[in-house]
């Protein structure tokens, strides 16, 4: 008995010692927000004040010193995130995560971002401020890796630190640019619909004008299961530990429509939620420069920013800058493909992908004149279907780093406008406002026209010499609005108006958010910062009532239960709001799921239906189709003896929705509140391991908002009891030039990516409740409310 007691005492002691060791180590890994630290390659003492939300305010003698300090403090809060961000484009995630991410590495290693980044670095002017300051930032990161504390994630995964380089910066921007594109999900799917069922099945999909094409001609071809490309890419991106960019809102109100007579800018870029979040805030002050900026991990210049003179933000343009081409192989030599000039040889390159705890993998990359053959880079696809990808980023000179530098160092609106032309990809809506009253919306991206016979929403013919002809357009043809007479500009990823009668092809989101923004801005002429702070979390749908009226008008209420009648009436009475206590959104979104499933799954199958739900285009379909009683999709092709009608499908799906809610939430409609089902968790890549989830993840929280309202909380339609929000505002910013020192912002979780930092999740409650905090510019206020870290020359 004594031996047993002694054994348990030893075990208990070891457990206590282990807990104390882990606790002590984690305390040791906390970022340092005060004290003194020597830093190489700075000329004078540099002071960093960390405010109460962990935002560094960097006061330096010159920009180079400031950038070195920025790299250091950015790394101490976000080094783990930087490591992830730099690995995805060159295909190096498998080195730390092993086989589960190998398919992601194969694809990205094969499409050529890494090679494009190396080329862009070689073309940089080594004497330019872009080059000098970017390297100073990287020097700060690398000095932190040498002298600072290794993040806990590095320890858990056995990552050996490697110095950051300019190529890493370009790779990060390259992945960001790819994540904007929607063609990879949409083109293969639409091509399969055309080839399987014919063009009449695309009438509800909005590609007769909304996507920038002319009236479609009848066509039905061989069915090649192109959708497998979209399936593979979608699965790969959803499993990626690095979040994708998906949408955004922004508007700028001119002084003629504000109470103060000064410009107000609002911006909330939509990105898939993650922990840590996308943006790192930092405020730099030098004798000749000041900028309060938002930085992506591992990049030296801010994509969003403001100072006392001007402010800028962005949303995704959603233009089409990716095209797929079906190559026609030589029947006598599968190493050649057909062109107008005769058969050409594919080129081949072998790459090695290192895989943790496994053998290296050899990747054979095949390329045609149109770009890499992506079917050979994706799992589950026949290598004989040689489909090549053309992407504007890889076609044009890559000047993204210099562009972002110039935008964050603009002298005036004309200078700002001019340098947007440097961004060939991705396509962005870039928003601008300044202290002297200018407002602007200007799009980036190298736009082009194709032959009138070509529809870029489909996989194109690589051999006919017509589909790949492009007329690149001058930057002057990019959509824009500068100081318009109506005194405001806005964008919500919606289709811009035609330029010279031409609608630019793209994968635009429905008009809902844009319509709501316009409807709120147009009648009011005394806007304040407080008004805008309410508008940016507005939850009311501009189209839900119209869609509900279409759907309920087609429902047969014969044999409806009391609950079904009550649920239907609740929808009819709904004003489109998506607050936590609303009941109608719960019914509406459940009904949308069953209506879409009962309409599309018989033709698509379960896997392709799930894929359809993840695209932007499904959101375009809903309003079009629910008012189209003649849509061929209403018929269930699996029932050979009858043809279903819109009334039958909508009635059946409504009854299924109510039955599902009764099972999940009970029979009392009073318990079907939106806040019970619409919830968000900010998930860390390591937090997917259940044992570690409580330490690394933030949440879960009930959250207001919905798909395609201004407070855009993105989810995929589902029958699950809980609707997991996938993405939404990555920050909310309101810049008021009448009170610039008290402009507002909030992040979804916090500034730091270190789980032991007080700033890991200290903004989460503010964010989910639609609240804000200051972006401080006043030095006296900053000094009075901050801790101080001083860097001295080494």
**What percentage of amino acids are in beta strands?**
15-25%
Give me the secondary-structure category: alpha+beta
Number of helices: 24
Please give the number of β-strands: 32
Q: Which word captures the global form?
A: globular
What average pLDDT do the residues reach?
91
Q: Main β-sheet: number of strands, strand sense, barrel status?
A: 11 strands, mixed
Arrangement of strands in the largest sheet: 1-32-2-3-6-7-8-9-18-19-23
Low-confidence stretches: 209-224
> Radius of gyration from the CA trace?
27 Å
Distance between the termini: 62 Å
Helix content: 25-40%
Walk me through this protein's architecture.
A hairpin with a 2-residue loop joins strand 15 and strand 16 (371-372). It is globular, with a radius of gyration of 27 Å. The protein is 36% helix and 20% strand. The strands form seven sheets. Strands 1-32-2-3-6-7-8-9-18-19-23 form an eleven-stranded mixed β-sheet, with helices on one face. It has 24 helices and 32 strands. Helix 2 (63-88) crosses helix 8 and helix 5 packs across helix 8 (166-180). With 794 residues, it is of the alpha+beta class. The longest helix is centred in the last third of the chain and has 30 residues, at 584-613. The termini are far apart.
């Amino acid at each position: 008995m004594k031996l047993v007691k002694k054994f348990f005492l030893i075990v208990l002691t070891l457990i206590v010692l282990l807990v104390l060791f882990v606790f002590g180590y984690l305390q040791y890994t906390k970022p340092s927000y005060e004290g003194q630290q020597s830093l190489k390659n700075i000329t004078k003492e540099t002071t960093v004040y960390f405010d109460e939300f962990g935002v560094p305010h960097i006061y330096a003698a010159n920009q180079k010193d400031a950038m070195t300090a920025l790299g250091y403090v950015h790394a101490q809060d976000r080094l783990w995130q930087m490591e992830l961000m730099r690995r995805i484009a060159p295909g190096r995630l498998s080195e730390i995560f092993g086989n589960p991410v190998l398919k992601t590495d194969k694809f990205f290693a094969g499409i050529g971002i890494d090679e494009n980044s190396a080329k862009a670095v070689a073309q940089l002017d080594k004497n330019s401020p872009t080059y000098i300051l970017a390297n100073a930032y990287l020097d700060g990161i690398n000095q932190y890796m040498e002298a600072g504390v290794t993040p806990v994630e590095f320890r858990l995964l056995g990552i050996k630190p490697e110095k950051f380089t300019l190529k890493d910066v370009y790779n990060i921007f390259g992945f960001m640019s790819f994540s904007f594109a929607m063609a990879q999900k949409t083109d293969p799917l639409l091509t399969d619909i055309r080839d399987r069922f014919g063009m009449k099945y695309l009438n509800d999909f909005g590609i007769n004008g909304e996507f920038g094409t002319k009236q479609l001609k009848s066509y039905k071809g061989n069915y090649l299961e192109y959708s497998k490309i979209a399936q593979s890419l979608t699965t790969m991106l959803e499993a990626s530990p690095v979040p994708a960019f998906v949408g955004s809102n922004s508007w700028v109100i001119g002084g003629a429509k504000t109470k103060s007579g000064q410009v107000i800018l609002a911006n909330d870029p939509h990105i898939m939620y993650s922990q840590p979040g996308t943006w790192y805030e930092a405020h730099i002050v030098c004798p000749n420069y000041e900028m309060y900026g938002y930085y992506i991990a591992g990049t030296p210049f801010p994509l969003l920013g403001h100072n006392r003179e001007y402010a800028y933000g962005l949303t995704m343009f959603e233009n089409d800058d990716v095209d797929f081409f079906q190559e026609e192989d030589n029947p006598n030599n599968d190493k050649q493909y057909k062109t107008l000039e005769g058969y050409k040889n594919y080129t081949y390159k072998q790459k090695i992908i290192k895989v943790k705890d496994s053998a290296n993998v050899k990747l054979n990359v095949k390329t045609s004149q149109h770009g890499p053959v992506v079917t050979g880079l994706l799992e589950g696809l026949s290598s004989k279907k040689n489909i090549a990808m053309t992407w504007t980023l890889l076609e044009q000179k890559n000047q993204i780093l210099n562009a972002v530098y110039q935008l964050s160092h603009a002298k005036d609106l004309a200078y700002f406008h001019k340098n947007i032309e440097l961004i060939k990809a991705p396509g962005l809506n870039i928003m601008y406002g300044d202290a002297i009253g200018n407002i602007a919306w200007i799009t980036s991206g190298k736009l082009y026209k194709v032959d009138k016979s070509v529809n870029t929403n489909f996989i194109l013919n690589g051999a006919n010499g017509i589909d790949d002809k492009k007329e690149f357009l001058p930057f002057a043809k990019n959509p824009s609005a500068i100081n318009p007479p109506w005194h405001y500009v806005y964008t919500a990823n919606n289709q811009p108006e035609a330029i010279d009668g031409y609608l630019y092809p793209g994968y635009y989101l429905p008009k809902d958010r844009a319509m709501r923004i316009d409807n709120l801005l147009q009648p009011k002429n005394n806007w304040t910062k407080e008004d805008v702070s309410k508008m940016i979390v507005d939850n009311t749908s501009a189209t839900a009532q119209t869609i509900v009226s279409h759907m309920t008008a087609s429902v047969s209420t014969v044999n409806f239960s009391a609950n079904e009648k009550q649920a239907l009436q609740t929808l009819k009475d709904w004003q489109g709001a998506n607050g936590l206590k609303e009941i109608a959104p719960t019914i509406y979104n459940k009904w949308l799921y069953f209506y879409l499933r009962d309409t599309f799954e018989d033709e698509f199958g379960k896997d392709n239906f799930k894929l359809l739900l993840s695209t932007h285009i499904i959101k375009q379909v809903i309003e079009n189709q629910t008012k189209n009683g003649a849509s061929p999709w209403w018929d269930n092709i699996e029932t050979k003896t009858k043809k279903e009608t819109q009334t039958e499908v909508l009635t059946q799906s409504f009854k299924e929705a109510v039955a599902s809610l009764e099972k999940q939430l009970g029979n009392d409609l009073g318990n079907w509140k939106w806040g019970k089902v619409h919830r968000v968790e900010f998930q860390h890549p390591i937090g997917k391991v259940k044992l570690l989830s409580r330490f690394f993840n933030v949440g879960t929280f009930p959250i207001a908002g919905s798909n395609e309202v201004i407070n855009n909380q993105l989810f995929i339609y589902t029958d699950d009891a809980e609707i997991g929000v996938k993405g939404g505002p990555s920050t909310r910013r309101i810049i008021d030039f009448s009170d610039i020192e008290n402009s507002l912002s909030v992040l979804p979780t916090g500034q730091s990516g270190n789980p032991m930092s007080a700033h890991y999740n200290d903004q989460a409650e503010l964010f989910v409740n639609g609240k804000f905090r200051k972006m401080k510019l006043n030095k006296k206020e900053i000094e009075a409310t901050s801790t101080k870290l001083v860097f001295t020359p080494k």
